[in-house]
Amino acid sequence: LFAIFAFATCGGYSGGLRLSVDCANKSESDLNIDIAFAYPFRLHQVNFDAPTCEGKHREKLSLIGDFSSSAEFFVTIAVFAFLYSLAATVVYIFFQNKYRENNRGPLIDFIVTVVFSFLWLVSSSAWAKGLSDVKIATDPDEVLLLMSACKQQSNKCLPVRSPVMSSLNTSVVFGFLNFILWAGNIWFVFKETGWHSSGQRHPPDAMEKQSSSYNQGGYNQDSYGPAGGYNQPGSYGQVDEYGQSQTYGQSGPTSFANQI
Q1: What is the DSSP string of 76-120?
Q2: Secondary structure class of 224 (helix, strand, coil)
Q3: Are 124 and 179 in contact (CB under 8 A)?
Q4: How far apart are CA 60 and CA 129, in angstroms?
Q5: pLDDT tens digit string along 199-238?
């Protein structure tokens, strides 16, 4: 939704300004000089006519600057971000199983989210600088300095209407909001990847240390013998009535078999 607002407020902009040149000879004056411009802000291609206050001769002038690169880059990122968000929404809803298959979907989503976060930051910063230059280039006072008639003190040059830049300012705000939104979404997308789940598992070394701690701590104590378990080295030797010695070792069930 923020991506739509971003490219709509910038890509759909059209504005203009109006100037007036009041010559000493009133018949040569022009009090309504309209200058219109729009996206992508190739201002050097915006031409207008202005009186010279020297007879009926008029001069052809143009605004200064070409700011199409930053504006088009900003709009392009906004459009692609919107299309990707739309496609991702469809995948999340209708293809959830394929999305999680082999962990490929979350990894792609994570990488694309990081890339778009970076592009939103770069494009918004570039467009903010471009918009500042557009405001200077379309300032009525700056445009009046381009007219030769306004360099003569006998003529009066005044701005009648300044361009309205509120929608362009809004586009910059939405650009940085998109950056915050995409950057904040990186963590939630990362949790869906296998990298996050593998980081929570116990590594093999930790499991081996844990198993060895059971062997050394709970059951292999000196109270049962130095070698652990029930196999104590001591035995009880007895002599029966036939003069045969018998040994009763505490080595488990096999001792009874030996006695038999």
Answers
A1: HHHHHHHHHHHHHHHHHHH-HHHHHGGGHHHHHHHHHHHHHHHHH
A2: helix
A3: yes
A4: 29
A5: 444 444 444 444 444 444 444 444 444 334 444 444 344 4
